[in-house]
Amino acid sequence: MTDQHPVSRETFDEVMAPNYAPAAMIPVRGEGSRVWDQDGREYIDLAGGIAVNCLGHCHPVLTEALQQQGNQLWHLSNVYTNEPALKLAQQLVDATFAEKVFFANSGAEANEAALKLARRFALENFGEDKDQIISFKDGFHGRTFFTVTVGGQTAYSDGFGPKPGAIEHGVFNDLSSLQALISDRTCAVMVEPLQGEGGVIPATAEFINGVRALCNKHNALLIFDEVQTGVGRTGDLYAYMGTDVVPDILTTAKSLGGGFPIAAMLTTTKIASSLKVGTHGSTYGGNPLACAVASAVLSEVNNETTLSGVAQREQWFRDALEAINQKHHVFAEVRGQGLLLGAVLSEQYQGRARDFLVAAVAEGVMMLVAGANVIRFAPALNIEKADIDEAFARIERAVAAVVNG
């Protein structure tokens, strides 16, 4: 290639599977909430790698943790344990309801582990007829065949042959729909406390309390998928802490590693006892590099300064979106919690979320969508006020460009 860059966006089309359609520019460097592409052009990151880069790009505490561990120990088989994994597990147990931890590499893997555990626990304690799993329409739980089937978007699960069975879907925030499905045959109910991919929709208190009560009544495990809501995203360390409900199993990934792939499934000693030696595993799960970084992330996020700063930043975002809306009337509402926010497009702009996304990139802002009608924001929890102000000055220009055709 004679291009000044050894690889380009064209390279993607030549060598990568076609399941993504990435932007024309390629980011090469990041610092805090700013990112630069191959041409040195600067962007403000309000996407956070889909709620992953919770402390921004190249946070000094995280890069130091990675470098330090990188000079000590990279990987072991699960025939051995390691210090970073034990330290991180202890931090998670100390900070949550959990007594036991299982490490994996992604949210899908953590959810896969949670679902397998729920089935195994039911089998051992109640017999083989208790196998039904209930989740909710428009929910998202990962891309493995089990988790994508439990997820409530058939567009992601159709077309791959016969699906895993005994999986039903209720309607999110509609308790009667769960009541109609749940019985003593139900082994688990899996729910996001705030639906992310489904449009950034928080569970109502009535709904989530009712789900817990129904699970108790039918001896079903309540699984909270906190892959996107966890590690400070909502202003609590985990979203369940802002409710009256404690789940039986919780999954966490995304922000847990601050950009390094890691996930965890958290549960009680009683439930975890069903994962006997050999019943489940992960080659990379509990990797020392990942655990060292995640340990540093937890230390940085799980404190009053970071967590209380989330609510302040949420207000800045809401104010900025309101100011744009006063001028252009493109949003019907802004929903979500903390720094997982969804700006829902008004009637006139239905189906055009991607147009706003593309216009924002052209102005130097990275955003997300959650379906065709919602613009999603999931920035770093420590994003600076100056970055927010500049980002929304650019977004205003992007919105104006779409509005004016």
From TrEMBL:
It catalyses: N(2)-acetyl-L-ornithine + 2-oxoglutarate = N-acetyl-L-glutamate 5-semialdehyde + L-glutamate. Pathway: Amino-acid biosynthesis; L-arginine biosynthesis; N(2)-acetyl-L-ornithine from L-glutamate: step 4/4. Its cofactor is pyridoxal 5'-phosphate. The keyword Cytoplasm applies. It holds the Pfam family Aminotran_3. The modification N6-(pyridoxal phosphate)lysine is found at K254. It is found in: Cytoplasm. InterPro entries: Ac/SucOrn_transaminase_bac, AcOrn/SuccOrn_fam, Aminotrans_3, Aminotrans_3_PPA_site, Class-III_PLP-dep_AT, PyrdxlP-dep_Trfase, PyrdxlP-dep_Trfase_major, PyrdxlP-dep_Trfase_small. Keywords: Amino-acid biosynthesis, Aminotransferase, Arginine biosynthesis, Cytoplasm, Pyridoxal phosphate, Transferase. One of its GO terms (biological process) is L-arginine biosynthetic process. Homodimer. May also have succinyldiaminopimelate aminotransferase activity, thus carrying out the corresponding step in lysine biosynthesis. Belongs to the class-III pyridoxal-phosphate-dependent aminotransferase family. ArgD subfamily. This is Acetylornithine aminotransferase. It comes from Echinimonas agarilytica. The gene is argD.
